[in-house]
Each structure stands twice: as structure tokens, then as C-alpha cells.
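Field log, afternoon session.

UNIT: design team B
ACTIVITY: writing a sequence onto a fixed backbone
BACKBONE:
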């Protein structure tokens, strides 16, 4: 879960003014930028900058960052096998920077790879790439809830990046943030358990572009059926889950039984076709005789026998 930082006390933080105490949660819990705080409080950017500077001088912001903890689902995986079904993970974001200043340029000159909350952040001149950490998963009982949980987290995370790097990444009506990779996994999948027992590898590639879209994986010992095509993973998981639920909830023939049934059906069709041909042959003389007696314009023999 996303955990908010605890409030400050006299024992772990310098004395803050009433205004500073109001600003702290906007930074520590909501990760608003200076400009966003100014809008929220209906004041000037310069006034907020002075307060932030004071918080830095008092060391309050360093305490805030140590207290903040983001979503870490590693422990949740082991305690939710029966309750949760879908695990969203392996997300990758490409973000075009909308605004930046010299602070970002200086940071880029020092390094281009940073780890924040176990997520890997790669910095480029005009873009930022974010790769979710191995322990970061969003678990829910369906695809849409898992997606919603992830978007809530990443919205906060991107706002934090804005604050850390002094850049603008999120702005209304701008499509500069692209999700280029994500994996949806159905946990405790029966096929996954069977595959694990037999030691079989299952990977399926798409016909149109040849990219891997489905596999059976045993990450965290969860026996997962996983969809991971960069463009269709979410829709694929809905289809896959519906298919497996249908197998669970309704009686189905095994493949061998289905093949036998198809063979028996084909034999019956052949028998019926043979019988129909025999009937046609028996009717031919009678139809020909009737056709001779009928005036022109009446149906011909082939009209009767098709």
C-alpha cells in the first residue's frame, strides 16, 4: 500500500512555523511542486520558494524523504494467494520533459541512472525513462482494479520526480507520458501449476509482429499465466482470464475426447450423405418418368436432386 509519512514531532525535527507545518504534508504526502503548492495555497511562487528554502535549512525535507515509503508488495504476495488474482508488474514509462532548468542539466552531467524507491530512473537530455522495481506489483481481483492502483502510485511518483529534478512532467492535455511495457499475471493459475510439475516451458508469440504475448511463469512461486505484449497486455489478460474461468466453471471435454467426438461426427455425416445418395438413385427413374409427362417449363430432374 501507499503509506503516508508520519507527522513531525518536537523530538525528530526542528521547530517549524505554522505555515511550514502546512507546507510539509503537501511535499511529503502529495509531492506537489512549488508551483502546485502556490496554486493550492493561492499565493505566489516566490513565497513558497522561501518556505521551502527554510525547510531545507532546518533539515526538515531530509527527514520527510526518509519517512516516505512507497508501495512495496513483496510481503503482500505471500499473504494474498487466495484473495487476489491479478498482479500487474514490469511497467516501463517513457516521459518527455516539458520544462527543465540548469538544475536538471547539472544532475544529468553527474549521472544518468538513479534508483528511487527501487525503481530505475534513466535520465536523458529531453526524456526520462522509468522502470518499475522487481518488488513493485499492483495486486487486485481484476485487471481494471490492478491498473487503477498502478496509476494512483505512478501519478504520485511522477510528481515526486518533478520535485526531485525540478522539472515539469505532468500537464493537462499533454500526451508526453507513454507506457511502453507492462505485464499482467493471473496468480495461482492451474495450468501454471501443471506446467511446473511437468517442467514444461510455455511461450506464445503473436502472429502479427512476432512479439511474446503469453507465457507461464513461476515468479515468487505463484504459478502465473502472464500476458506481456507491450500494446495488448491488458486486453489479452481479460481474454485469458475469461478463458481459464470458463474452464474452471463449466464442464469441458478433454482434447482427446474432443478429437474422438469430431471423428464420430464426421463418420455420421458420411453415413447420412451415403444414405441421401442412395435415395436419389432410387428416385431417378420415377422422376424421369414424371418429367416426360409434364409440359415444358416444369422442374427438371436436377431441380429435384439438387
Amino acid at each position: 500500500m501507499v503509506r503516508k509519512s508520519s507527522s513531525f514531532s518536537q523530538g525528530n525535527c526542528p521547530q517549524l512555523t505554522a505555515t511550514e507545518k502546512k507546507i510539509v504534508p503537501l511535499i511529503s504526502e502529495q509531492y506537489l511542486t512549488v508551483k502546485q503548492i502556490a496554486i493550492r495555497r493561492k499565493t505566489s511562487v516566490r513565497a513558497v520558494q522561501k518556505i521551502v528554502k527554510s525547510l531545507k535549512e532546518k533539515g526538515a525535507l531530509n527527514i520527510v524523504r526518509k519517512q516516505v515509503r512507497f508501495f512495496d508488495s513483496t510481503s503482500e504476495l505471500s499473504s494474498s494467494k487466495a484473495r487476489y488474482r491479478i498482479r500487474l508488474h514490469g511497467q516501463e514509462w517513457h516521459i518527455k520533459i516539458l520544462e527543465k532548468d540548469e538544475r536538471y542539466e547539472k544532475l544529468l552531467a553527474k549521472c544518468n541512472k538513479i534508483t528511487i524507491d527501487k525503481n530505475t530512473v534513466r535520465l536523458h537530455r529531453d526524456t526520462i525513462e522509468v522502470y518499475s522495481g522487481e518488488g513493485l506489483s499492483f495486486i487486485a481481483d481484476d485487471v481494471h482494479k490492478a491498473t487503477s492502483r498502478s496509476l494512483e502510485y505512478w501519478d504520485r511518483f511522477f510528481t515526486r520526480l518533478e520535485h526531485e529534478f525540478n522539472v515539469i512532467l505532468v500537464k493537462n492535455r499533454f500526451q508526453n507520458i507513454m507506457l511502453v511495457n507492462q505485464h499482467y499475471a493471473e496468480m495461482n493459475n492451474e495450468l501454471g501449476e501443471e506446467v511446473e510439475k511437468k517442467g514444461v516451458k510455455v511461450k506464445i508469440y503473436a502472429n502479427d509482429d512476432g512479439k511474446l504475448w503469453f507465457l507461464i511463469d513461476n515468479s515468487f512461486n505463484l504459478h502465473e499465466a502472464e500476458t506481456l505484449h507491450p500494446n495488448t497486455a491488458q486486453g489479452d489478460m481479460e481474454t485469458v482470464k475469461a478463458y481459464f474461468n470458463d474452464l474452471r466453471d463449466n464442464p469441458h471435454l478433454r482434447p482427446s475426447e474432443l478429437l474422438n467426438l469430431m471423428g464420430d461426427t464426421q463418420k455420421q455425416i458420411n453415413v447420412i450423405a451415403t444414405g441421401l445418395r442412395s435415395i436419389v438413385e432410387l428416385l431417378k427413374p420415377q422422376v424421369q418418368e414424371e418429367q416426360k409427362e409434364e409440359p415444358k417449363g416444369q422442374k427438371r430432374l436436377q431441380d429435384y436432386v439438387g
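LOG NOTE: The chain has two domains: 18-67, 74-249.
NEXT ACTIVITY: expression trials, pending approval
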